[in-house]
Specification:
Distance between the termini: 9 Å
Radius of gyration: 16 Å
CATH superfamily: Copper homeostasis (CutC) domain
Number of domains: 1
Helix content: 25-40%
Strand order of the largest sheet: 1-2-3-4-7-8-9-10
Order of helices and strands: EHEHEHEEEHEHEHEHEH
Largest sheet: 8 strands, parallel, barrel
């Protein structure tokens, strides 16, 4: 069974290249070196006008995994704006001291109650990820968790991803991302530990996050992920 391939993009040209290479879904960001921050709505509109792929848009105001009362109004405004553009979903999530910041996450989601969301790699900061899966699965809008699978070898990460998928038990999707290179992607495909993968550097020449997305690189990832 082919893996769903999600590619990070930060320009219309990136989106075109990802689509040509065979991406299934795009995550739209700016400031990719900071892990991705909220992009301008004009970029989201421009990408939507050029490609027909589903768009998930990050809603994040700083390079960390926490937020505060000063950022919340901007986060709420951003997710409401993207909802009006009929995006496939948002990407967000907050942690504080190794614990889920559920209140902040729900406060942002409440501004766009019809929008689905991926809880991003704040998940990898949590002390008890299995408990977090249960708590996040109880939030109706969250349908995915983006996670690296933690530290260790590719095999160790895949085994952890398998554990997370088992714990999710169909309530939400575990999306493997961060340092998913060709070797890791091939292993994910062989083990079937997740059904969806998320790539950034691997879709760019020389693994440079600031390089444009390469259609050829995406096509190679598509081949490894299954046709």
């Amino acid at each position: 069974m082919a893996l769903l391939l999600e590619v990070i993009v930060q320009s219309v040209a990136d989106a075109r290249a990802a689509a040509r290479g065979g991406a299934d879904r795009l995550e739209v960001v700016r400031a990719i070196r900071d892990g991705g921050l909220t992009p301008p709505v004009a970029l989201v509109r421009g990408i939507a006008a050029e490609v027909s792929l589903p768009l998930r848009v990050i809603v994040r105001e700083n390079a960390g995994y926490s937020t505060n009362g000063h950022e919340l109004p901007a986060l709420r405004e951003a997710i409401a704006t993207f909802a009006a553009e009929s995006v496939d979903g948002a990407v967000l999530g907050f942690a504080d001291g190794g614990e889920l910041a559920i209140h902040d996450t729900v406060r942002v989601l409440d501004a766009a109650p019809a929008v689905k969301a991926t809880f991003h790699r704040a998940f990898d900061q949590l002390r008890d990820p299995l408990d977090a899966i249960d708590r996040l699965a109880a939030i109706p809008q969250i349908d995915r968790i983006l996670t690296s699978g933690g530290a260790g070898t590719s095999a160790e990460r895949c085994e952890r991803l398998r554990t997370y998928t088992g714990r999710a038990h169909g309530r939400l999707i575990i999306l493997a991302g961060s340092s998913v290179d060709e070797e890791m992607l091939a292993l994910i495909g062989r083990t079937g530990c997740v059904a969806e993968v998320h790539v950034g550097r691997a879709a760019r020449a020389n693994g440079d996050p600031e390089s444009p997305v390469s259609a050829a690189r995406v096509a190679r990832l598509r081949e490894l992920a299954g046709a």
